[in-house]
User: Which sequence fits this backbone?
């Protein structure tokens, strides 16, 4: 009887691991690489205050995070876009009920190589670059150099917001270089004098040069007041109303201390 009890306990443990549902004291986070710095910094602070809780975090893009919500293989999905109606329907069909939490505000800022003298681009010029209609920087007041457009993969929430707000649903040319993360985007642009890309405000550093859009600078203030034309909210989704440690973690991110972490991570706090 004792042996049977041990086997049942082991089976229950294995079911908890392989079903994707977090065990007590374990929080699984998946999704957007844009939201990743916020999640990582918040997790470190939360685990320091709650040593009995372990938070595992992985990137992979907003689409993959939301898919994990649908499949119920994550406790929290980071997303740099809002969930689609089709994704909500797929989640509900699978017994998950996505709950959105806006955690920060962001601006998707065009960046070029630091040596590029171009300072401002309009939405129309950016669209024409990514459609392949403008191919040389001299057409935009820059040097006689071929433009190398860098874009995100289609599972990226940043890509989807760029597609909506800049491309206006026009297709990005197939010649554009595709990268899998915000960090890779910054590295690609920093390493190519002809490159142009787009990154969240939290990834801006001296390795690339930001350009204004329609004459508006991509600052925290302009993202928050909506005057920067490529602004958005960043989200965390849960597969139902959170409870226990997950609820505590979400409350922490939305608290003054959590929003301070958002700011320290380079993004725009909600308040």
Assistant:
């Amino acid at each position: 009887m004792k042996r049977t009890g041990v086997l049942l306990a082991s089976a229950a443990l294995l079911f908890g691991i392989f079903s994707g549902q977090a065990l007590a004291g374990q929080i699984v986070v998946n999704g957007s690489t844009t939201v990743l710095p916020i999640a990582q910094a918040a997790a470190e602070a939360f685990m320091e205050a709650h040593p009995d809780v372990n938070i595992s975090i992985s990137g992979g893009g907003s689409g993959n995070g939301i898919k994990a919500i649908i499949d119920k293989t994550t406790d929290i999905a980071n997303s740099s876009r809002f969930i689609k109606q089709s994704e909500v329907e797929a989640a509900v069909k699978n017994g998950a009920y996505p709950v959105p939490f806006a955690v920060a505000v962001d601006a998707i800022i065009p960046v070029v190589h630091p040596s590029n003298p171009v300072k401002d681009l309009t939405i129309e010029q950016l669209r024409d670059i990514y459609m392949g209609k403008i191919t040389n920087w001299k057409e935009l007041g820059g040097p006689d150099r071929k433009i190398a457009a860098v874009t995100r993969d289609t599972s990226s929430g940043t890509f989807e917001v760029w597609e909506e707000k800049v491309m206006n649903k026009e297709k990005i040319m197939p010649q554009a270089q595709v990268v899998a993360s915000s960090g890779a985007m910054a590295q690609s642009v920093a390493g190519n004098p002809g490159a142009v890309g787009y990154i969240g405000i939290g990834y801006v550093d001296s390795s690339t040069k930001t350009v204004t859009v329609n004459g508006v600078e991509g600052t925290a203030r302009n993202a928050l007041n909506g005057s920067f034309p490529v602004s958005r909210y960043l989200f965390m989704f849960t597969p139902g109303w959170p409870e226990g440690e997950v609820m505590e973690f979400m409350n922490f991110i939305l608290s003054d201390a959590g929003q301070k972490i958002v700011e320290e991570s380079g993004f725009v706090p909600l308040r």
